[in-house]
Structures are given as C-alpha cells and as structure tokens.
Amino acid sequence: MAELQNDRFLRALLKEPVDRTPVWMMRQAGRYLPEYRATRKQAGSFMDLCRNKELASEVTLQPLERFPLDAAILFSDILTIPDAMGLGLRFETGEGPVFDKPVRTLADAKKLYVPDMASDLGYVMDAVSTIRKDLNGRVPLIGFSGSPWTLATYMVEGGSSKTYSIIKAMMFDQPATLHHILDVLADSVIAYLNAQIEAGAQAVQVFDTWGGVLTPRDYNEFSLRYMHKIVDGLKRENDGRKVPVILFTKGGGQWLEAMADTGADALGLDWTTNIDNARARVGDRVALQGNMDPSILYASPERIRQEVATILKQYGNGSGHVFNLGHGIHPEINPEHAGAFIHAVTELSAQYHK
Prior knowledge:
Strand content: 5-15%
Largest sheet: 7 strands, parallel
CATH class: Alpha Beta
Strand order of the largest sheet: 1-4-5-8-9-10-11
Number of domains: 1
Number of strands: 11
Order of helices and strands: HHHHEHEEHHEHHHEHEEEHEHEHEH
CATH architecture: Alpha-Beta Barrel
Helix content: 40-55%
Number of helices: 15
C-alpha cells in the first residue's frame, strides 16, 4: 500500500500533535454533488452503486477532487449486514429502506446468523481495497458500520420509523428476543469492521443513529453495551499503525462519559452539545469529532465561516478535535457552501495548534 501523505486525521483521533484541525463530512460522497448523482444514475440503483467497486471508489473520491478533506469514507450503507442476513432489503422512493422479512418473534431472531464476510459481503471489502488503491496514500480511508441497536430498529420495524413502537414493545415485553438479535448483530459488526480493516480501512466509525431515542437506562442496556462489545472485539492495529475507533450516537451528548468508558479512541458529537462542555467532561480520555449543525450550510459562506470560528474557539488549543458536521450533509446543500465550511477549517484552525 502507498505511504500515507496526510495522516493528520489519524493523529488527531489519537490526540497526537497536528499542524491544523483535520476535517471531513459525514455523507461527503452523496446527493448534494451533481457528479455523484450522475454516477448513481449510471449505476442503476443505490445498492448497485455500493456493489460496483469501481463506481463506489469513484464516488468516494469525488469530494476529495473538490475539497481539501483530510479523510475519505467508504461509500456504502449501514444496512449491508441485515441485507446479507437475507431479510429482503429494498429502497422505496420516498420512504427509504424496506425489509420484506422483518424480525418480529424469537423464532425470527433465531434464524439470524453472522454473514460470511467473503461471500456475503465481499463486495464491501472489494470496494475498500479498490478505494485504498485509488487513494494512493492521499488521505486515510474510514470504514464504518451501523450500531447493533440502530440496525435492529430497521430490522424489527421493517424500515424507517418515527415512533419505534414495534422495537420498543419488543424491548419492554420480550427483552431476551431483542438481546439475541443485538448479540448476533454485535458479532456481525465485529467481523465486518475487522474485515474492512484487513482490506485497508485505516479508522472505523460506528454510527448509532437512533441511540438517542432511548432512556439512559435502556441506552446502556440495549445500545452502549453492544458497542462496548464491538470496541473490545476490534483489531486495533494494522500495517504497523493504530486503527482508531470512533463511536457516534446521535442525541448521545448526555452519555459521553459512559461512551468514553468503552475504550473507543474518539466520540462523535452532534450539535446539541457544546464542544467545550464535552471536552471538559471527557477531553483527556478521547478525541472529539464534530459538531457543526448541518443546517448552517444553508446560510451564507460568511455565516458558515463565523460558525467554524466559534466551534474552533470553543474547542480551544491542542489536538484531539476532528472537525465535522453533527450529522450527515443534507442533499439540497450548495456544494460551494460545503467548500466554504471546509476551507474555513483549513484556514482558521492552525492558530490552535502552535
């Protein structure tokens, strides 16, 4: 593999000194870019794009051609694992992912199995190794997975949900069934992320998109417990270099101390927690990633630059901050506004690293 020319993202995750704050964006390869929409059209469908290693690599690198980003993230989807379990995933226009065979009973749960990473999910590993080759050492590559709780919400609900009524009923009435599902998912995520690391991912992130819909008690029992199991099971070094692990719970700002106890290297923050408060609580134990409100990108470039300056000042001096949005970039954002954000981080952050 080519030598890494820009490793400030990996160093910041490990709280090592950097010359400026590294920056990347969740969903940086996506619908806000016209070139992405053109490639997706060429692929035929979203999952066909994920399964085509050349096209997956092309869209992963598209934002790097436009912006001075410090990391690339694998182009894939969080639902690849449940899809590989044979639950009949399809994407419906206007309603998002749908599972033809939702997991609703203990009998359903007992049919679940850890997919074979080579045969069932080999297309993801092919994409990882192709992207690493095509990056040629420009920046590190991030691999990722959904968290067990987040994956379970889709599998049990049968798709997206606003109320989580089916999975929460299972959680309260049939906790043993849900724990069985989450255990199989945690084992699957460990195998999946370790396979991505072996294929060339240089850092990994676990997206716990729906952890924030739980009470503190239920978050600990049904979400964090399984992310802790994942962190314990991951390969933390490859190619003679540490592989940092980022945990991101949307709406999880009140649980940062417990998240840091998992042994993860970094925690993602959404915009509902001030980064100075987060750093005061956990800053010596983990790096922090975030946490600009993605909706700021609807504002003028001048206002975006002010917001970047505010967050950099709130975090303060020293390493351990990876600048990002507090969630994925919205599809309607003007790419020039995304550029204004990224350029502001690269221009304004050096003063905090003298």
